[in-house]
Amino acid sequence: MLVVKVGGSLYSLPDLPSRLCQLICHYEDPQWLIIPGGGPTADVVREFHRRHQLSDEVSHWLALRACALNGEFLRQLLARRSMPPRRNVSFPYPSLTEADQAGGVLDPWAFARADEGQLGCLPHCWNATSDSVAARVAGLLHARLVLAKSICLPAHATWDDAAQLGIVDPLFPSLVEATNLSVEVVNLRQTA
User: Residue 127 is part of which domain span?
Assistant: First the structure.
């Protein structure tokens, strides 16, 4: 099982669908799932949070909605591309429907709603971004996690180092450690 988190900084790539297809094909896994990052859409929510003093919880749910919007954007992009065949992923939540992972792209808001109140569910704060959503999903599915980003992880950097550098969110290192996740960072801007 392969979970690919697509960083929002990649949405401006004109050949994003072909790069994602190449990335997924590289792993040759028939069970794959994409988690959309927040990017500029979530940055709007960050500005609303700052300007209007929204609570962390309200802002977190709005940011998840922004990621859901980005997920629909990715679905539309990928629908025009011949993606590798895939099998649907089976989640332990009956409220999470096949439509919530249509086209191989998970709706982060729907996932968080289904996961709410479960042991290990994410807190509602800016420390838990789409990186942590992807780690939570990968942990639940016992999957390999690939973080597709616009940056490389420095050699010998720990996940705590990566959080300090802003490459992943502050909660991410503890999720990786708690679930013993296999995680790889791929700079999708550097792939051909």
Answer: 2-187
